[in-house]
Amino acid sequence: MGTEELPGLVRDESKQRRLKIGIVGFGNFGQFLAKTFVKYADVYGINRSDKSNAAKQIGAKFYPSYDVANFLKNNLDVIIMCTSVISFEQMLGTLPKDQLRDCLLVDVLSVKMHPKEVMMTSLPPSTDILCTHPMFGPESGKYSWQGLSFVFDKVRISNPKRADQFLSIWDSERCKMVEMPCELHDEYAANSQFITHLMGRILGQQGLRRTPIDTKGFENVLNLVETTCLDSFDLFYSLYKYNVNSEETLRKLRESFALVERQIAAKEAYIAARAEIAMDERTNLLEECRAIIKEALATSTLQGATSDALVRKLLADRLDEEQKKGGQPQQEQQGGKQV
Amino acid sequence: MGTEELPGLVRDESKQRRLKIGIVGFGNFGQFLAKTFVKYADVYGINRSDKSNAAKQIGAKFYPSYDVANFLKNNLDVIIMCTSVISFEQMLGTLPKDQLRDCLLVDVLSVKMHPKEVMMTSLPPSTDILCTHPMFGPESGKYSWQGLSFVFDKVRISNPKRADQFLSIWDSERCKMVEMPCELHDEYAANSQFITHLMGRILGQQGLRRTPIDTKGFENVLNLVETTCLDSFDLFYSLYKYNVNSEETLRKLRESFALVERQIAAKEAYIAARAEIAMDERTNLLEECRAIIKEALATSTLQGATSDALVRKLLADRLDEEQKKGGQPQQEQQGGKQV
């Protein structure tokens, strides 16, 4: 876990045989990787629809899906699955397993436990498995991969030299190399990536616009919506469906929403109750005053001129008593009122 | 509406009589304003608890709440209410209305229709009313007010010179002067300030932490939580309770949450249905093939050596037919997969 410099890797690829890398799924993301891979390796792409022109421009060899037999005849060192999360299992199923015995199989999905389990279950025991999550894409990594996070887990590696040679591509491109178990990745992701997408999707439906009185906090909200709503619903769905932790994240968020609504209701009730009690106390006080005045008036018929002073004393005593009780603060202090 | 330069204001206060400004509620925010006001005006503070030391340091004269009569004997030009939203109405009620006839009453609350209505209802018709929302406070305006938004609405002004002299303080401090009706302020605020606080409060309960694999979107989430959860629950409650638009904002957000959950459920159902249909079609295809083979075998007993070719032709016809039907795409293209 954490960032690693991978100091043991040999960066000078001239001393090594060039890797042969097969890319299964030669769409946007597959082509994006191929553009960099060709600097370090021979690249072969395979895709259902024709991408031969794109492959030619990049300098990769292209095969249509039905020609998988010839694609695999290239003695590929590494096969990297560039499919969506949803179609990953099905796509892996289209590859003849017995021809993958000597390969390193790599995935690049945004969830990690799912592809790990699928590959562990369906691949021959001699196939090496490397689970990765390049946390960037054609947009964010358009000009450079420098400083962008590359998460990886050496799930099952019998040929460490080959795996390291493949990893050295990302390291040479100055990615931030983050080695992390698939399980931990998904734990983190549910409480960062998924919650971000969830909030972004919910807020994205509010039709929010910039106003002349935007606060800094609201700028953050707008940025959040912008960064997440560009991504497909399929990706969002995958972050939910194929990460065991996401359901709990969704549940907690739903609960917190309800809790905030309950807190508002409780505050309303509290303020109403306080106002009622204050009113009751005022009524009681007035009644007591009335009784005192009656008493004073009764006394005054006996004692004449001292009645005024007596009323004043009785009232003062009563008010003093009230004050000692404390009562409610008249005024709330302003803390961080302004926003 | 929009920013204004207020070009007509006379900035050189030496040509004008110094204003006498009374601050009702001499807590954090009242003191914060007083520190700047003393540069332009004589400042008088009144507060329930004793703030005479703070007032002395600032250069203002202090009165305890019970001494409101003497506080008002200063012939105040402007009285600015620095209370919380919740206690605003009650605090205004403690001022003897007939002594406010010749004053300009100002509020600084984060909601605007509520104080406008309270002041319009309870103040004498000759009292001038200016509703304002300085969108900053002791933290953000610690060193300078330059560029910070000051929203105001001249609700009822019979003495424009006095109001302009008061506004010129904010303008001289280089605030971004935003003149806007209270109603529009609250419309904007419900869809910016309130929604920001609501999201911040909900997310604040998730116990989110930075992880080694944070995305830019998640940074926005963390910033949102940090900027909103410093503010009091009372402020959040006020943004809800005292802005007529906030209930609708809360309702829409609750609906969007439910909608996203329904979208997830719909996607699950869709994928399951597609898988089922694909399985059904495969079963049908196999059964038809079986029938064709039986037919071919039956024919072969009659025609001998041509049976192989016949089976091949029948199967090819059937598969061709299937292909024309189209079927489901095997593979989903990767759009903005990575995040």
TrEMBL record, chains A, B:
<dbReference type="GO" id="GO:0004665">
    <property type="term" value="F:prephenate dehydrogenase (NADP+) activity"/>
</dbReference>
<feature type="compositionally biased region" description="Low complexity">
    <location>
        <begin position="326"/>
        <end position="339"/>
    </location>
</feature>
<protein>
    <recommendedName>
        <fullName>Prephenate/arogenate dehydrogenase domain-containing protein</fullName>
    </recommendedName>
</protein>
<dbReference type="GO" id="GO:0033730">
    <property type="term" value="F:arogenate dehydrogenase (NADP+) activity"/>
</dbReference>
<dbReference type="InterPro" id="IPR059064">
    <property type="entry name" value="TYRAAT2_C"/>
</dbReference>
<feature type="domain" description="Prephenate/arogenate dehydrogenase">
    <location>
        <begin position="19"/>
        <end position="301"/>
    </location>
</feature>
<dbReference type="InterPro" id="IPR045011">
    <property type="entry name" value="TYRAAT1/2"/>
</dbReference>
<dbReference type="InterPro" id="IPR046826">
    <property type="entry name" value="PDH_N"/>
</dbReference>
<dbReference type="GO" id="GO:0070403">
    <property type="term" value="F:NAD+ binding"/>
</dbReference>
<dbReference type="InterPro" id="IPR036291">
    <property type="entry name" value="NAD(P)-bd_dom_sf"/>
</dbReference>
<dbReference type="GO" id="GO:0006571">
    <property type="term" value="P:tyrosine biosynthetic process"/>
</dbReference>
<dbReference type="GO" id="GO:0008977">
    <property type="term" value="F:prephenate dehydrogenase (NAD+) activity"/>
</dbReference>
<dbReference type="InterPro" id="IPR003099">
    <property type="entry name" value="Prephen_DH"/>
</dbReference>
<feature type="region of interest" description="Disordered">
    <location>
        <begin position="320"/>
        <end position="339"/>
    </location>
</feature>
<dbReference type="Pfam" id="PF26213">
    <property type="entry name" value="TYRAAT1_C"/>
</dbReference>
<dbReference type="Pfam" id="PF02153">
    <property type="entry name" value="PDH_N"/>
</dbReference>
<keyword id="KW-0560">Oxidoreductase</keyword>
